[in-house]
């Protein structure tokens, strides 16, 4: 269970050259934009990464349009945790729960989740907001991450868990995101 006051959203490498070859790209983009907007409504901090953007391109415009106030990190390592600036920012935010989305599920997402779990963060993977080129790689990654202790969830499951009740002051804004 993610408590909004103790949660951060991490978006991994949804870049031009990578996103274009993902299975279910449209679903990935749609759910990522919903999660970003929900996090913004609820004032949940957002960190996003780009894997060697000089070669793989910047974050796709359909996503970057929502990231004006998010913390941005470039990386060469597959795991975000190997980048000290990323880890310093995460530690400074002092949050327990990390919601992880992005690509590729079996490489950068998997290695980041593994390392965040080792660093004692509680991890929630949003299964409909991660992707790989091959669906089998995504399935294996989800299985491995769950076995390591990550919670597997979906976009709608998470955003309604964040607000808990229809009486939440942001219920209307959140529910509009999925209509």
Automatic annotation (TrEMBL):
One of its GO terms (molecular function) is isochorismatase activity. CDD domains: YcaC_related. The keyword Hydrolase applies. InterPro entries: Isochorismatase-like_dom, Isochorismatase-like_sf, Isochorismatase_domain. Pfam families: Isochorismatase. Residues 7-156 form the Isochorismatase-like domain. Keywords: Hydrolase. Its EC number is 3.3.2.1. SUPFAM superfamilies: Isochorismatase-like hydrolases. The keyword Hydrolase applies. PANTHER family: HYDROLASE, ISOCHORISMATASE DOMAIN-CONTAINING PROTEIN 2. This is Isochorismatase. It comes from hydrothermal vent metagenome.
